[in-house]
Amino acid sequence: MTATPTEIRLQNEGRTLLLRYDHAEYALSAEYLRVYSPSAEVRGHGKPVLQLNKQDVTITALAPVGHYALKIAFSDGHDSGLYDWAYLHRLATERETLWQDYLARAAAHYQKENL
């Protein structure tokens, strides 16, 4: 059974998405959700495309998709990719690990750029 949120709410003027489940509550930043978008643009058809400079992005709209996913629109115009319940739950429960991985990849990119 996929963990479906019991509540989904925007906070901090669209900077944070609150996901409440029966067992826990998670606050995910718009930046985090944007850099981990499940869209083809980000996932790169098998070769992920690193998303940079998204620290100021906000969530401008949320739309349920059937009973299985959430569509999130961002202030930078990105609105493709569906966050299904399983993926959102993974982003919530593995946030620290995934965020540290993103920060390491971004740092490596900037280090490579400055060589």
Description:
This protein has 4 helices and 6 strands. The protein has helices at residues 30-35, 40-43, 85-93, 95-113; strands at 7-11, 16-20, 25-29, 59-65, 69-74, 82-84. Strand 1 (7-11) and strand 2 form a beta hairpin. It is globular, with a radius of gyration of 14 Å. The N and C termini lie far apart (48 Å). The mean pLDDT is 94. Keywords: Iron, Metal-binding. GO terms for molecular function: metal ion binding. Residues 8-89 form the Gamma-butyrobetaine hydroxylase-like N-terminal domain. It holds the Pfam family GBBH-like_N.
CATH architecture tag: 2-Layer Sandwich
Q: Kindly, what is the distance between the CA atoms of the first and last residues, rounded to a whole number of angstroms?
A: 48 Å
> What is the CATH C level class, in words?
Alpha Beta
Helix-strand pattern, N to C? EEEHHEEEHH
Cα-atom Rg, whole angstroms? 14 Å
* Shape by Cα distribution: globular
Largest sheet: 3 strands, antiparallel
Strand order of the largest sheet: 1-2-3
Instruction: Show unreliable segments.
Output: none
Give the count of structural domains. 1
Helix/strand structural class? alpha+beta
Protein name: Gamma-butyrobetaine hydroxylase-like domain-containing protein
Domain Gamma-butyrobetaine hydroxylase-like N-terminal: 8-89
Keywords: Iron, Metal-binding
GO molecular function: metal ion binding
